[in-house]
Amino acid sequence: MANELEENTSPSMSPLRQALRRADKLQAILDIAKVMAAQHNLDELLPLILREAARVVEADRCSLFILDRQRNELWSRVAQGAKTEIRVPLGQGIAGSVAQTGDVVNLIDAYDDPRFQRDWDIKTNYRTKSVLCVPMRDTRGDVTGVIQALNAADGAFDDEDVELLIALGGQAAQAIENAMLHEEINRLFEGFVQASVMAIESRDPTTAGHSGRVASLTVGLAQAAELAIGGPYRDLKFTTDQIQEIRYASLLHDFGKIGVREPVLVKAEKLYPHELEVLKQRFELARKDRQLASYVRRLDGIKLRGDRAIDEVVGEENERLTRELKEIDDALDFILQCNRPTVLAQGGFERLTGLAGLSFNDSRERPQMLLTPNEVQVLSIPRGSLSATERREIESHVTHTFRFLAQIPWTRTLKRVPEIAYAHHEKLDGKGYPRAVPGDQIPVQSKMMAISDIYDALTASDRPYKKAVPHELALDILKKESESGQLDKELFTIFVEAEVSKKALRAK
């Protein structure tokens, strides 16, 4: 189209050819308007406007300035020939003057106008001649910025160029307003998400950073899966909005923990601290009971066998007391060992049943058990620190998360955030929670998050109930779960081969 326009700029152009040329330019503006309306990224929209403005009025280059009313100045992220952001006080220079007055400025030689600032030419090694600067107005007619075209192809801008640039400026103003509104919405969502993450972490400081790491890992796995050249995910692609959707779902996947009781949420060992303290005091009483019983036996022995047997009686009782106290101390040591949770399921708790038979006499000589049935049951938990009831309470956080996220009026591009977060604890074999859905009903984004969530939970060093698991051992555990049909085997392979954990967490 540019070549055609250049061929039809002669003064002797027929009215028909002039009309066709004008129609072509107007059609170009309409086409540009459609493209601008679909572009919500301001960093991509602004260069697009400049390119098309220069093409429509046949200028060498263009600049665009947006009015910042709060600071009473113009600013530009992009100006052809400039490498950094430009800020111009309102009323200063040609652009500042047009923004202040709303009048069009059309110069044949900018150097003849005192408002022109030649230092820009000096900085950019450029010679500005003709200048066309028009205001951009929104639908209310208010000036929102200016478009400035430099150095017309035929030496000067005519009235038609003025009309076309004003028309384009109006379309650009609307597109920029929409893009800036889109940016504000994105900032609003980002602020809300970050505030929610802070709320989660203040509720459970021991897992601070978990949400952010899971988000980085899941996004990293999604991007790595897009590069797969074979397998079931070879055609998998995510848009920028879908990657953001994955990130938000990952950041908010544990928000429902706000609805879980704090003692359960931060439970470090199988017995709560106050329960363990009561148990320890019980063992101290048992030791004292054994000691008192020994002194009673000593007196009875001496009465029965006479004073000459004191040394013999004392020696026998010392040996017996040592043996009985050691039995109690060994039992407590074993209980303390059982009280510490493990990452992998373990057995060896059978001895607790025998220890449950140990007793002592209280101050009223009533027999008391050293271990209660509930303590035996809790201490026998094979994996982790939670009882079945507490585990169900923890698992309820997923439902709380979904109900909370479902109340948010997500944008069209983020509408699946609740659904993705809802399924991050589901398993491919249908044995996950909270709905136990089969693998074909689990979103691929949730399958990715499941791998990331478990990896970080294993390797995190900030958990009160376990030590950090080394990277290789964490991968071994994930491999077993993928081979048993719980996690997606193909996605786990991508996670390992693409070194997602190293790349994603290194970038944080």
Question: Which structural traits does this protein have?
Answer:
508 residues, alpha+beta, Beta-Lactamase, Hypothetical protein af1432, 3 domains, six-stranded antiparallel sheet, two-stranded antiparallel sheet, 19 helices, elongated, disordered N terminus
Note the topology.
Blueprint: H1 2-7, H2 15-38, H3 42-56, E1 59-68, E2 73-76, E3 86-89, H4 93-101, E4 105-107, H5 119-124, E5 131-137, E6 143-152, H6 159-203, H7 210-226, H8 240-251, H9 262-265, H10 273-305, H11 310-339, H12 351-355, E7 359-361, E8 367-369, H13 373-379, H14 388-406, H15 417-422, H16 444-459, H17 471-483, H18 489-497, H19 500-507
Helix pairs in contact: 2-3, 2-6, 3-6, 7-8, 7-16, 7-19, 10-11, 16-17
Q: What global shape is seen?
A: elongated
How big is the Rg?
38 Å
Structural class: alpha+beta
**Order of adjacent strands in the largest pleated sheet:** 3-2-1-6-5-4
Give the name of the CATH architecture of the largest domain: 2-Layer Sandwich
Given the structure, what is the number of helices? 19
Order of helices and strands: HHHEEEHEHEEHHHHHHHEEHHHHHHH
Strand content: 5-15%
CATH level 4 superfamily of the largest domain: GAF domain
